[in-house]
Amino acid sequence: MNYRYWIESGELCVADEAQLVWRGQPESRPAVGVVGIVGTDDAVVLLDPETGPRNALGHLKGWPNLVRVTPHGQVTWRIEAGSHDVWVGVKIEGDRIIANTWSGFRRELDPASGRVLAEQFTK
Description:
The protein has 123 residues and is mostly beta strands. A hairpin with a 6-residue loop joins strand 10 (105-109) and strand 11 (116-121). It is globular, with a radius of gyration of 14 Å. The protein has a single domain (4-121), classed as 7 Propeller (Methylamine Dehydrogenase, Chain H). It is 0% helix and 48% strand.
């Protein structure tokens, strides 16, 4: 089945050819980016990094703000960018998932597990 993913007011929306099938916030956090995963019905969702946990000084701590979701909003994996880092972008290049971190890493992720397959420092 073909699903379409988009974001409205921080909520992830998913529709099939006929109707909306799910709307909400994965992990109870606002979504800021979404890309469909080639060859699947699922998508990778970038959750707003600014809504994550903070340390005692108010600085943002790393947290798994990149998740894979099914068309019904179920999270099948989540990945952290690093203990003091967050994901800030995600895109599809061909059949590869490419995500960027705040600290300047460009990483290729395995669609099945979220595991980092390759990385390049870009700053």
